[in-house]
């Protein structure tokens, strides 16, 4: 291990106090030649500087700093770059800088990444334009809707629930596997069933789960489809395509109300759910009034930010399901999964997330943290707005990606390290029976549109 700056300063201090360099070298991490080198450096410059070991960076440090700033800004703008884009930009910059064509490769990128520990490879989640348009006004309205329900019902953590559906999906993208070196076109089997199974999950803010419900495709289901389900009180129904609809949701609301009467001593409930139109019908409010349920709907397209089940539970739940399906298909050497077996696997995954002790489902601390992170319980508008702010900045904290440039080539700034263009204005302008010049048309199109309240 190379000597640290403290080792060097301590050795030089001992020599200044009268010890001989040879004696210091025998009892310190520094060799005699190293001590002599730093003695000479201090005599000439008045300070000690430790140079970095290894290959000298090909790109000047100021240009590397600008490249890092561009990477941060691209992430903030919603277009994080891949490795090949960084290599192309660096090659372009250095070709202009040294005057000859340069082609950097993976070795340069590996050293570049090792020099900048705040950069790392991540899997980018694809986010639609609609899901990236959550507004502050919508979140504030949703927060005060929660406040109204909590104060009106005098809610505790056990009275605040979140309900959502997820799919029994096991077909994913390609994954890395362990194979013999040199193998080509390595493949693996996967489930070939085409039916869709929906799982309805609900949990309280104190981590207590509600028994899950399963929606199978079709108009009927087999009599013994729940015989192997390990979760007591689980429900099953059928819908034409296996998706939730308003009639099924009303039926689930009644089942939830009956469960609440048995397990929660008829306590009221604040139920947080997404803004999907398939949830509510004309009968929903009547059912909620009968069972003491207050509905709070999330802002449109905000489930990835403010829904505890999405934030804290479903990822682990679906990963457990996928692993169990793979193990079953491997053990039986088949590619089909009967519906009864699918419900059994989903029930086992549910029990893995909420283990039962003496027949009672345990509370899940991840769910408790999910409600807290989303600002639902305890109620916290700053946490909600902080999650929105981080999402708008694509998880770039502080002022990174907005820092002013320090030292760089003008060409690199203006021609190479560019950001995506700003969104264009409206294509059509309301004339309102008045005449417009060309400049007036463009000026009107550039004005932001007023959102409907």
UniProtKB/TrEMBL annotation:
<feature type="region of interest" description="Disordered">
    <location>
        <begin position="422"/>
        <end position="453"/>
    </location>
</feature>
<keyword id="KW-0238">DNA-binding</keyword>
<dbReference type="Pfam" id="PF03184">
    <property type="entry name" value="DDE_1"/>
</dbReference>
<feature type="compositionally biased region" description="Basic and acidic residues">
    <location>
        <begin position="429"/>
        <end position="441"/>
    </location>
</feature>
<dbReference type="InterPro" id="IPR009057">
    <property type="entry name" value="Homeodomain-like_sf"/>
</dbReference>
<dbReference type="InterPro" id="IPR004875">
    <property type="entry name" value="DDE_SF_endonuclease_dom"/>
</dbReference>
<dbReference type="GO" id="GO:0005634">
    <property type="term" value="C:nucleus"/>
</dbReference>
<dbReference type="InterPro" id="IPR006600">
    <property type="entry name" value="HTH_CenpB_DNA-bd_dom"/>
</dbReference>
<dbReference type="GO" id="GO:0003677">
    <property type="term" value="F:DNA binding"/>
</dbReference>
<feature type="domain" description="HTH CENPB-type">
    <location>
        <begin position="51"/>
        <end position="122"/>
    </location>
</feature>
<protein>
    <recommendedName>
        <fullName>HTH CENPB-type domain-containing protein</fullName>
    </recommendedName>
</protein>
<dbReference type="InterPro" id="IPR050863">
    <property type="entry name" value="CenT-Element_Derived"/>
</dbReference>
<dbReference type="InterPro" id="IPR036397">
    <property type="entry name" value="RNaseH_sf"/>
</dbReference>
<dbReference type="Pfam" id="PF03221">
    <property type="entry name" value="HTH_Tnp_Tc5"/>
</dbReference>
